[in-house]
Design brief:
Elements: H1 5-27, H2 34-51, H3 56-70, H4 77-91, H5 94-113, H6 125-202, H7 208-237, H8 251-263, E1 267-271, H9 281-301, E2 302-310, E3 317-326, H10 338-349, E4 353-359, E5 362-370
Parallel strand pairs: 1-2
Antiparallel strand pairs: 2-3, 3-5, 4-5
Helix pairs in contact: 1-2, 1-4, 2-3, 2-4, 3-4, 3-5, 4-5, 4-6, 5-6, 6-7, 6-9, 8-9, 9-10
Length: 382
């Protein structure tokens, strides 16, 4: 009970009232009155019952209230009755508390107006009824405040848990994005480095010019990797709410990407690259990454050629397809499949569709990306 300050305070009030009643009996030289000691004993028993929120405590409170009207000795009998009722209302449901108040109030009224009681005994009945109502009201108010606090603590705990889950989800998504960026930016350039390194090794003794050109391409690819990693690290170190925007992807960027694959021996046929300009900025970046990954896979697992087809916007979407000749085979260089997973995640995050798999003409990677339809001259405001 000590952990409950309201219950502890109510019990202290009951004990102090009992002590005051016992003192009044001694001061008035009424120690020989058995009735007074019975009333005090009932109060002590009622305190024990109220500590367990027993319904018998209500019966004791009703008897004490009735005895207060018949004989106001010992002192503070009314306070003991009110304290017992408060302790009961503090720990029981509303219906029980209201019923207890009605029982004590009814007992008080009956005791006040029975014919054989003195007519003077009804003077304090309204005070006792008011005390009963106050004790029931205060007990239920305290209980309502506790329920509110418990509900508020639970709500805040759930909110904190939701925020922790949201932060964990954002961290997981950011890790996935970083892993995807690293894969997309490094895989192609490492393929370039590997091819030109082999060329340099094969021509090391007989053709220094070829070796020099291959090493220049290796250096350029390495520099590109370092630049892209630098951009990624700058985003990770940024303290602002939004990362710095990346450079826009245009036809020049796509041409450089295609030339880098041509330099490592992949024959790429293209059609409709200008339609990439109709893509939204984020979708255009995704298209570049998709081309990079699809052509890297075509170089690693294909037959040395690939076809890139970009269709005009239809229903707000641009369709990008990359097809290459492909023969299923078991090799030591088989990939993990994370590149395809990364492409699919990029496209789905933009609200597009993605498919990759073998078809009768080879291996096909196709994606639909959201476009921004260009304005015609008639739509341009005057």
């Amino acid at each position: 009970m000590r952990s409950d300050r309201w219950a502890f305070g109510g019990m202290i009030a009951v004990v102090v009232s009992l002590i005051a009643g016992a003192t009044s009996v001694i001061v008035r030289d009424q120690a020989g009155s058995a009735t007074l000691w019975i009333i005090l004993g009932m109060g002590a028993v009622g305190a024990g019952l109220a500590a367990r929120a027993s319904s018998l405590a209500v019966v004791v409170a009703a008897l004490l209230a009735g005895s207060e009207l018949r004989d106001p000795a010992p002192w503070a009998t009314w306070a003991v009755a009110g304290g017992l009722l408060f302790l009961f209302a503090l720990r029981r449901p509303r219906f029980d508390a209201v019923a207890a108040g009605l029982v004590v109030s009814g007992t008080t009224l009956v005791a006040a107006y029975l014919p054989w009681l003195s007519s003077d005994s009804g003077g304090g009945v309204f005070g006792l009824v008011a005390l009963v109502a106050a004790m029931v009201g205060v007990g239920q108010w305290v209980q309502a405040q506790r329920r509110y606090v418990v509900a508020e603590v639970g709500r805040r705990r759930q909110e904190a848990e939701r925020r922790r889950e949201e932060v964990a989800r954002h961290v997981a998504e950011e890790r996935l994005r970083i892993a995807r960026e690293l894969h997309d930016s490094v895989a192609h350039h490492l393929a370039v480095v590997s091819v030109h390194t082999n060329v340099a090794r094969a021509n090391l003794a007989r053709s220094p010019h070829v070796v020099q050109r291959a090493l220049d391409d290796v250096q350029a690819a390495t520099q590109s990797v370092m630049e892209e990693l630098g951009v990624l690290l700058s985003v990770l170190r940024a303290t602002g709410p939004d990362p710095a925007p990346s450079a826009p992807v245009d036809t020049a960027v796509i041409d450089d990407l295609l030339q880098s694959f041509t330099g490592i021996g992949l024959t790429v046929e293209t059609e409709g690259l200008d339609h990439l300009l109709a893509l939204a900025p984020l979708a255009r970046t995704a298209a570049q990454r998709l081309l990079q990954e699809a052509l890297t896979n075509a170089h690693r697992y294909g037959e040395g050629d690939a076809t890139v087809l970009v269709e005009a916007p239809v229903n707000g979407y641009v369709t990008l397809s990359v097809r290459n000749a492909w023969v299923p085979r078991e090799t030591a260089s088989a990939g993990s499949g994370l590149g395809l997973v990364g492409m699919e995640e990029r496209v789905h995050l933009l609200g597009g569709t993605f498919h990759a798999g073998p078809d009768p003409d080879g291996f096909l990677v196709t994606a639909q990306l959201p476009a921004i339809a260009p304005r015609t001259s008639k739509e341009t405001p005057a």
